[in-house]
Every structure is written in C-alpha cells, then in structure tokens.
Request: fold
Amino acid sequence: MAQLGEANHEHHKVRLFSLSLTGTAFSWFSSLAPNSIFTWFHLERKFHEHFFAGEVELKLSHLTSVKQKHDESVSDYVKRFRNTRNRCYSLAMTERDMADLVLNGLRSHLKEKLEGYEFLSVGQVQEKALVQESRANELKDSHRISRSRLNTIEGYAGSDEETDVYTAEFVWPGKTKPYMCDDL
Reply:
C-alpha cells in the first residue's frame, strides 16, 4: 500500500509541477511533447538537461539576430526563435515585443505582406506568416505549371543600323487551345 501512495504522490508532483513555473521555465515545460514525461525522476532530469547543461545564457542581442534563413519554413524559424528565447533566462519581455522581433526576423517578402498588422503574440505572427508562406508556395507551383505552357514570339523591326527587338510571352490557360493570330 505504501508503494501505491508513493506512486500516486509522484504522479501528483509531475502533474502539479507546471503550476510552479513562470516565464522561460513555463515556456520550456509547455513545449514538451504531450505524454513524454511519466515520472518525477524523468521530469527532473529533463529540466536539468535543459536549464543546467552548462549552456551560456543568451542576451537580447542573440534574440534580435535570429532571422529566417532563405530555405527555412516559417514554422522552423519560429521554433528556432523560441528556442533562443528560452535560453535568455533573465530577459523580461512582453509577448507583443517578442511578436515584433519575430516579425522583424521574417524574410522580407513575408514581412512586407504583414506590415500594418498589430500582433499581440508570436503565435499570431506565425499564423499570418504561414498563410502568406502557403500562398507564395501555391503561386510558385502555379508559375512552374504555367511555364510549361509558355510560348514566346520575337519580332524584329528597323534598318540594318538600328534594330528593335519585340518580345511577347503568352501563357495559355490549362485547357484552352492555342490560337494563331495572323497579325503577329
């Protein structure tokens, strides 16, 4: 019976641990995969690995230097930003300020699309940026498809000394038959 009480006590410690956390520690705890911690020993070990692994505390300058890489998805960028933020142990910063930093670190084509919005959290920036990223990927895919249906017509006019080059590109819609224009 003593073992059952002890196991129950350990289960309660694990379940109630999050209530004792704030700031960075709570962010770290919240980022753990669901159902990944079963024992107090395991939780304690994970906590120590993350916070006492000899990692140097990062500063605001580290956080402001986190920028989205050219081939990095919005989700991966935000995850990397949050991981960096979690290593800024003594940095006191509002969610709104962090949202501004995340927005500022996005690639320019995404940042331009999101300017003018007022974001209250990193999650809001991520959500809007994911929509823009998805649209950009769809546009890139449709452009790739239309390139396969691209016809170019070139024309030359002028004397031997002065030649003008006229170029036109026509993109045919998917199921439409091409039409030959006699005036071209």
In short: The helical segments are 2-16, 23-31, 40-51, 60-64, 74-86, 95-105, 108-114, 122-147. The chain has a mean pLDDT of 78. The first strand starts at residue 150 and ends at 158. The chain has eight helices and two strands.
